[in-house]
Amino acid sequence: MSGKLIVISGPSGVGKSTVLKKVMDLTPNLYFSVSATTRPQRPGETDGVNYFFVSRERFQQMIAEEALLEYAEYVGNFYGTPEAPLNAALEAGKDILLDIEVQGALNVKRRRPDAILIFMLAPSFQDIENRLIGRGDTAPELVQSRLNRARWEYTQAPHYDYLVVNDDVEKAAQEIRSILTAEKCRTSERIHYLTLKEDL
After folding, report:
1. Does domain 5-194 have CATH number 3.40.50.300?
2. Beta bridge partners of 64
3. CA dist., res. 93 & res. 80, Å (int)
4. How many other C-beta atoms can be found within 10 angstroms of the C-beta atom of residue 96?
5. Residue ranges of the domains in the chain?
6. What is the pLDDT of residues 52-67, one digit of tens each?
7. DSSP labels for 116-147?
8. Which of 1, 45, 62, 183 sits in a 20 to 30 Å window from 137, CA-based?
9. HEC secondary structure over 12-57
10. This prediction's pTM
11. Highest mean pLDDT: which of 50-54, 178-182, 189-193?
């Protein structure tokens, strides 16, 4: 049985990274798909763990080679998902978690209708602004750009299968795990249990 592809999106400042770390800690058989990006590496991030940090030239080469499941440009930087390792993991029965922005997520859904899309919200839009400013790693002119982007992202949330509100990290993580459990209990996933064998 192939694995599940879970796609998480949400605006910058909504707290995705913290929630997803908790989800990964609580779910031993869930694997995180590492995206490639051209954005600068932030303090505390590790190449190949948080992202594959590549040059714009290398990223454009990956596009030309059709090596990406999806890609999009966000606030001046490219982000994309290498396809070959993702497909190999799913075929091996592993559940894969993707943390990608909205354009990429909707592109994945078009190419893979079986993908499970989850949009993460903040309790209020003001919380996003407070978090972006409080993080201290975003230049003031970029904060407004990301807030404008977040407003647009919220308009795309109805295209997702599920909405998770990050008002509590533990609760949000448990909701994501519950979604994965529910998806594995769908009739289409378990119809084979209904196969009746003739009495010998």
Report:
1. yes
2. none
3. 22
4. 20
5. 5-194
6. 999 999 999 999 999 9
7. EEEEEE-SSHHHHHHHHHHH--S-HHHHHHHH
8. 62
9. CCCCHHHHHHHHHHHCCCEEECCEEECCCCCCCCCECCCEEECCHH
10. 0.84
11. 178-182
